[in-house]
Amino acid sequence: MKISNIKIIDDHVNSISCSGDSDSGNHPQIFLKLNSEDGTVECYYCGKTFIKKSVFDKK
Ligand SMILES: [Zn+2]
Questions:
Q1: What are the per-10-residue average pLDDT scores of the chain (59 residues)?
Q2: From ligand 1's centre to the CA of 13, what distance in Å?
Q3: In CATH terms, is domain 3-58 a member of 3.30.750.24?
Q4: What is the pTM of this model?
Q5: Sheet of 49-52: strands edge to edge?
Q6: pLDDT for res 1
């Protein structure tokens, strides 16, 4: 997993929006809900993985 494709988010955040970035390319803005079990979600447009800080620190 490329570290540049991971975005750490705050623990209290339960949904995020993604519209891509200059590295992976822009895409229409979408909203994603974090998986309540593992605290992560992957954007199906650009493949960026959002992960809660507490979950990331454990890995
Ligand atoms: Zn995206």
A1: 78 95 88 95 94 90
A2: 17
A3: no
A4: 0.84
A5: 6-9, 49-52, 40-42
A6: 47
